[in-house]
């Protein structure tokens, strides 16, 4: 438990650095690059948030244990610390469960609301326009279309089974073309799935106030990069048509709010719409930043990997020790390269043989640290030599 909280805090600090850089550089440096690059940065940070523990990679080199590097640490008064960690863990877990349940309830409530106010589109002309746009984007999967009362902006809803919902208004052929292309690009990029991952990552790091900055920036760059993809290779006049369709959705009053697991054509913010239109009509050429993407991918991968020459024990290896010392198979709890022995009993209540087991295991060189007892009263750790 203490290991988990330590790794969680370390990860949260780690992802806070790029979020702070985004807040400082988005209007000075990042704005010079494509929205696609900015969106990829948000995705990489989001995925990194999920890895609260490093992935250990075993390097098959001989591990020589130097006795001088073995430190036996006798701990006293750790019960209070352990209790505090348990309380903190419970508070954190409650926060995670609350946020996840809250978002799931919102999603269920949204589907219940539209259940009686949505009308499946059977108009062959509308379906034909959708099929043409699917063909242009090389999408073969069947996607339903429904008109929904009280909705101001078209949206793509669902994660596994996607559906396009549009307001129950009259649209001409050109407007529908732009609307469907926008939503189909969201579909092709799996943006709703990425938003689900963002929700889970945000729930894990709910205590970090900087996560809110990432969520806002993620949403902005998701829509801006989608616009960027929609207008690619289109003429200036066609881009103006698309911008007009986007602005035109502001006329309608939204009485039905979508959830975060949906991708809307219009984000219902005048300032955001203004920024999207200005970005589309801007003649300024943005940098692709291919090298930056490769570099960030490398750094992200490196940050979740730990290289070591220790061996991770498999569950079957516990049979190497006698049944008496194994305490009915419940003595060992593996946590990365750390082994916690006899978590169900305090160190003072262990036999001498059981206490010696920790040192024996540590001297094998298979583990970077071994802790003994429920209150971790005794720990063996391999410290780096100076």
From TrEMBL:
Keywords: Membrane, Transmembrane, Transmembrane helix. The chain crosses the membrane at residues 6-25, 37-61, 81-101, 289-307. Residues 78-277 form the Peptidase M56 domain. Pfam families: Peptidase_M56. The keyword Manganese does not apply. It comes from Clostridium senegalense. It comes from the Bacteria. InterPro entries: Beta-lactam_resp_regulator (IPR052173), Peptidase_M56 (IPR008756). This is M56 family metallopeptidase.
